[in-house]
């Protein structure tokens, strides 16, 4: 998420009673693990996550002991139409995909009666995740690594991105667009609903103009291909220089690979100042080498990225104002004058 929001945002923390969590998880896991289960008190991770509650715990059953992660749907989601079941289903769909490491999932629970909201449980993978707070390019294990190690980390992450984009869409029927609509077209329809949602914060002329431009200029061969949605270093787990898992499917869609390349270029491009981290141009070139595909319509997807980030920040700041995290008048100004809304305005002006 953009630095301007992270200066104020509160990362998701579970407010649920630890003993209640432990008891519910003990009963819920027993039939799934095939034995009597002992569960430790859940702990909340630090450093990243703004959409759903996360807790980590250990479980013992028989001769086994393993770490697990609990993800609970938020009662105040940032993303419209948020469905934590999609996260579970994505991990399940990618479980057997070579080159795309993800945690094993142990089940999804739709009944909100157990924890007050739907949830799922997955294995805990041991590794390090670059933090949003403080930014990973200024402190922490990536910053402290040798430039050659950072280059290996970056290249391995791009390899995973390339492998992800070659996953057949048939593995994700739950993402399928309506008949006759491309994945990118369906994604643009999602953002139309986002702008129309009252909680987004009302009319925003620049975002409206951006959405209209995206509809008018949609590529002639509009793609239907897997798009991670939030492709960036902060959603990649490393062990040494190896990628051991990727995370975060809040905006997963079938908008195609171009959307991910542009998002990564925008979100992590400035971090290329850190020796070893590839530039936006290097990202595109390396992805093309790995996939054997030419990345097209780069300008279009750069506009899409600015539009999406402007829309996300508008809703995020509006939520902050409603929650009292920021004074309402400050939140409203930030929502309407975010750096990405200004960037979008500049991009649209340059294409007149």
TrEMBL record:
UniProt cross-references to CDD domains, sorted A to Z: ACAD10_11_N-like (cd05154)
Domain Aminoglycoside phosphotransferase: 61-265
Alphabetical list of InterPro entries matching this protein: ACAD10_11_N (IPR041726), AGP_Transferase (IPR051678), Aminoglycoside_PTrfase (IPR002575), Kinase-like_dom_sf (IPR011009)
Pfam families: APH (PF01636)
Signal peptide: none
The protein's name: Unannotated protein
Organism, as annotated: freshwater metagenome
């Amino acid at each position: 998420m953009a630095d301007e929001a992270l200066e104020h945002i509160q990362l998701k923390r579970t407010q649920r009673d630890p003993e209640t969590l432990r008891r519910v998880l003990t009963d819920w896991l027993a039939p799934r693990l095939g034995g009597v289960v002992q569960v430790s008190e859940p702990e909340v991770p630090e450093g990243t996550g703004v959409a759903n509650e996360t807790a980590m715990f250990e479980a013992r059953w028989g001769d086994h002991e393993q770490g697990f992660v609990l993800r609970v749907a938020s009662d105040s989601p940032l993303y419209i139409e948020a469905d934590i079941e999609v996260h579970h289903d994505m991990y399940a769909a990618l479980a057997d995909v070579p080159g795309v490491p993800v945690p094993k999932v142990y089940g999804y629970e739709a009944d909100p009666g157990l924890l007050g909201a739907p949830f799922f449980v997955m294995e805990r993978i041991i590794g390090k995740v670059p933090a949003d707070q403080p930014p990973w390019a200024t402190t922490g294990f990536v910053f402290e690594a040798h430039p050659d190690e950072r280059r290996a980390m970056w290249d391995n992450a791009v390899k995973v991105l390339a492998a992800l984009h070659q996953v057949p869409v048939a593995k994700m029927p739950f993402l399928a667009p309506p008949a006759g609509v491309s994945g990118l077209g369906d994604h643009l329809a999602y953002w139309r609903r986002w702008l129309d949602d009252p909680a987004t914060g009302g009319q925003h002329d620049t975002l409206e103009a951006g959405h209209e431009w995206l509809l008018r200029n949609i590529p002639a061969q509009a793609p239907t291909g897997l798009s991670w949605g939030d492709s960036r270093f902060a959603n990649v787990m490393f062990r040494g220089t190896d990628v051991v898992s990727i995370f975060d499917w809040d905006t997963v869609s079938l908008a195609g690979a171009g959307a991910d390349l542009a998002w990564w270029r925008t979100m992590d491009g400035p971090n290329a100042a850190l020796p070893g981290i590839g530039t936006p141009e290097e990202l595109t070139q390396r992805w093309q080498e790995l996939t054997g595909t030419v990345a097209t319509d780069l300008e279009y997807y750069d506009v899409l990225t600015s539009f999406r980030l402007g829309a996300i920040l508008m809703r995020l700041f509006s939520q902050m104002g409603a929650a009292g995290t920021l004074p309402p008048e400050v939140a409203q100004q930030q929502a309407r004058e975010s750096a990405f809304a200004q960037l979008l305005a500049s991009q649209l002006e340059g294409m007149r």
